[in-house]
Specification:
Blueprint: E1 2-6, E2 10-19, E3 29-34, E4 37-44, H1 49-61, H2 68-71, H3 76-92, E5 103-104, E6 106-114, E7 117-125, E8 129-134, E9 137-140, H4 147-153, H5 159-162, E10 184-189, E11 195-199, H6 201-204, H7 209-218, H8 222-235, E12 242-251
Antiparallel strand pairs: 1-2, 2-12, 3-4, 4-5, 4-6, 6-7, 7-10, 8-9, 8-11, 11-12
Helix pairs in contact: 1-3
GO molecular function: protein serine/threonine phosphatase activity
Protein name: Protein serine/threonine phosphatase
Pfam family, one: PP2C_2
């Protein structure tokens, strides 16, 4: 069980678990759960290409364990995007077999600070997911970059149909060749007693959000919750690699933050007072 005192009054406890699953020979997921960064990468490509891709991406993002202030001189989303661009280039260069391209998703959170207030900088690229459990309610913060998400958004299929659609595993953004490297970013306030879940689709593909929420509410210890979720995903079929990171905020500073829409949503209203994780230069801040 790990404890982190960072950004003055923020105290985190976390746990993690990963499993190859019941039907795969190789675990192509990798994760980072240390310091200030909690990320999951789900590799794609087969023939070990996905394994190499996800580990390469996580290696490129290792500086984030020191925090955005130290690793990126406080440069927030722009700094993380530069690291992702580095990871993208390294993954694109992977060649494990002629005709086989490697790729990987990345999703998770990095502890950051804005105007003296602690925030989660949420990053997502692909169909791994980041959730927030607060006040007993589970919210999927990230938005899947997948064909079924686009079909659902267009009203072509229902939420239930996304779980069984034959194209449900096709991602529209990723690190590596063949898909754009265009991550979404959000800022979320760090709330005391909040719980963050980051997972590969090996979890979300087996358990619906209602069951995930039940486990997170029933199991108070972060490591035990991660273990339980992996166990239940295996029991439900375990058709894919399963990776889970659970992060608990046991103490936080004043929660004066506001949530943000995904970067790239530029329409503002009078009610839209949420700080955005836009890529801006220092002169534009």
């Amino acid at each position: 069980m790990n404890t982190l005192n960072g950004l003055e009054s923020v105290v985190l406890r976390w746990g993690s678990a990963t499993h190859t699953g019941a039907r795969r020979a190789l675990n192509e997921d990798h994760f980072l759960a240390d310091g200030f960064a909690f990320l999951v990468a789900d590799g794609m490509g087969g023939h070990e290409a996905g394994d190499v891709a996800s580990s390469t991406a996580i290696d490129a993002l290792l500086p984030l364990t020191a925090g955005i202030q130290d690793a990126l001189e406080g440069d927030g989303a722009a700094g993380v995007e530069r690291l992702l661009a580095t990871a993208h280039g390294r993954v694109a260069a992977i060649v494990t077999e002629p005709g086989k391209e490697a790729g990987t998703t990345v999703s998770g959170v990095v502890l950051a600070e804005q105007d003296g207030v602690p925030y989660w900088l949420v990053v997502n690229l692909g169909d791994s997911r980041t959730y927030l459990l607060t006040d007993g309610e589970l919210e999927q913060v990230s938005v899947d970059h997948s064909e079924v998400q686009e079909l659902f958004d267009a009203g072509v299929i229902t939420a239930r149909e996304t779980r069984t659609h034959p194209r449900r595993h096709v991602v529209t953004r990723a690190l590596g060749p063949g898909a754009p490297c265009a991550a979404d970013f959000w800022y979320l306030p760090v709330g005391e007693h909040d719980r963050v879940l980051v997972c590969s689709d090996g979890l979300s593909g087996e358990l619906d959000d209602e069951r995930i929420a039940q486990v997170l509410l029933e199991v108070p210890d972060a490591q035990s919750a991660a273990d339980r979720l992996v166990h239940e995903a295996l029991a439900a079929g375990g058709r894919d690699n399963i990776t889970v990171v659970v992060v608990d905020v046991t103490a936080a500073g004043d929660d004066d933050g506001k949530r943000t829409a995904p970067r790239g949503v530029l329409v503002l209203t009078d009610e839209d007072t949420r700080p955005r994780a836009d890529l801006v230069t220092e002169g534009e801040r």
